[in-house]
Amino acid sequence: MAFPFLKKNTAQEETGLPEILPKHVAFIMDGNGRWAKKRGMPRKFGHREGAKTFHDITRYCRSIGIQNASFYVFSTENWRRPEEEVDAIMNLLWEYLNDCDEYLEQEVRMIFIGDKSRLPERIRNRMLELEEDSKKYDKMNLILAINYGGRDEITQAARQLAEKAARGEIRPEEITEDTISQHLYTREIPDVDLMIRPSGELRLSNFLIWQCAYAEYYFTDVLWPDFARSELDKALRDFAGRGRRFGGV
Ligand code: FPP
After folding, report:
1. CA atoms within 13 A on the CB side of 219
2. FRET label pair with 191: which of 22, 31, 68, 157, CA 20 to 30 Å apart?
3. pLDDT tens, 150-191?
4. What domains, with CATH codes, occur in the chain?
C-alpha cells in the first residue's frame, strides 16, 4: 500500500514537517485529571485545559493538512466517573458545540461517533445539526468520539448484520471485513494510521480497536493539557520514519 502522500504547504514548510503525513490521526486525550491534581485543582480544571489543547491541536491539524483527526472525548465507560466530573465534561462539550463557527468557516466536516441515544437531548440534537451543516465540507474530517466504545461499535455492527441476514437481505458468506467496516460509525473514514496517547499510559482503552488494526502507535509522558503543537510535530516525524508493511515484507 502506498504511503498517503501530501504536497508540502506553507505550514509544513514553516515547521519542517515531513512530506509523508498520516491520513488519519487519532488522539486519546489522557492526563487531564493528573494535570489538575499536580496543581492542587479539581479534575474538571484539567478537562477545561484539555479542551483548550483540543482546540489548538484541531486547528493545527487543519492547517498542516491532516485529512482525518479523531479525538476520544467520552467513552462508554466514562459514565462511571463521579457525577460532578461527568457533568463538567458534558458542559464543556455543550459549550464547544455552540462555538463551532470557526470550524465551519474552515470547511471542516464534523462527525460524531458513538451511541448518541444515551446523551442529553440538547447535545444529541446539536450534534445532528452540526453533522448536517458540515457534511458538504471536505477540507478535514473532525471525528469526535462521544459515548463511544470500540467493542460497543462492533457489537452494533454485528447486530445490524444479523438483522439483515434474518430478513434475508444478506447471506452470511457475503459478510466480509469490508461489510463490517461499512457498518461501523467510521464507515466514511479511512483506518487510523497514527494513534497518539499522551500521559504515559500504554493502552488503547477501547478506542477505534477495529480501525487501529495496522495503526502505528505513539506514546509520550506529556499530559494532554501540555500537548503542544511541537509534540504533534514529534509524533509526525516519528511516524514518517516507520516502515509500514501491512503484513507484507
Ligand atoms: C481523560 O483524562 C480525559 C477524558 C475522559 C475527557 C476528555 C475531555 C476533554 C479533553 C474535554 C472536552 C473536550 C471537548 C471536545 C470539549 P483523565 O481524566 O482520565 O486523566 P487522568 O488519567 O490524569 O485522570
Report:
1. 7
2. 31
3. 999 999 999 999 999 999 999 999 999 999 999 999 999 999
4. 21-151+191-238 (3.40.1180.10)
